[in-house]
């Protein structure tokens, strides 16, 4: 699969989000995409999955079976978890019996077997995400695109998704992913591409994990949650800024949301906190 001079912008006069993208996604490879928030990572993944069309250039060699998992799953559908997966399996070319069997297997594998008859709108964020991941794996896609797909999953489900990624590449599939935790599948990608200023650049070596931090800003909460893991916290009026290792971000987000905070931004970078920060 190949990107050849690919560009994308939204609207005929809108600014270009990506320009002159040239990248290869060979069969049986794992590719990571990195970059700050708003640089076009999700746009790149949507182009790869065929959900967006290039404004210039072309993408060739996309496998017939392509699956995509967004960070936020549209759960407001009048279907049960099992019914939704069977429906998606049928769309992906499976017969009903096979779709039902594989749906049950993947739900069990991700620890969501008990929710097979639960309507999607009644599922928690974590359980909804398990369904979203399961639908992408039903038909053994030749291209699996994961946009922060681990967000909201519990530890067991995250480990299962790691293993499912390895199984896909071992079977000759391509996996393209973004995740805010640099430790996710660390050392395993065959290629790492970074998006910045509308350009996509390949790195032969992954960025050093120790230098990366996740930065979270939130507003409109009440008190500052206690015991935020390995986090540096600064409060300025009704605005809260939290800086921590990316591996702690899920726990921090849960704690802030439980305390009534609204998450404004989440980004990764190499900037460190200054002396005025207070460690939680």
From TrEMBL:
<dbReference type="InterPro" id="IPR027417">
    <property type="entry name" value="P-loop_NTPase"/>
</dbReference>
<keyword id="KW-0813">Transport</keyword>
<keyword id="KW-0067">ATP-binding</keyword>
<dbReference type="InterPro" id="IPR003439">
    <property type="entry name" value="ABC_transporter-like_ATP-bd"/>
</dbReference>
<dbReference type="InterPro" id="IPR003593">
    <property type="entry name" value="AAA+_ATPase"/>
</dbReference>
<feature type="domain" description="ABC transporter">
    <location>
        <begin position="1"/>
        <end position="222"/>
    </location>
</feature>
<keyword id="KW-0547">Nucleotide-binding</keyword>
<dbReference type="Pfam" id="PF00005">
    <property type="entry name" value="ABC_tran"/>
</dbReference>
<comment type="similarity">
    <text>Belongs to the ABC transporter superfamily.</text>
</comment>
<protein>
    <submittedName>
        <fullName>ABC transporter ATP-binding protein</fullName>
    </submittedName>
</protein>
<dbReference type="GO" id="GO:0016887">
    <property type="term" value="F:ATP hydrolysis activity"/>
</dbReference>
<dbReference type="GO" id="GO:0005524">
    <property type="term" value="F:ATP binding"/>
</dbReference>
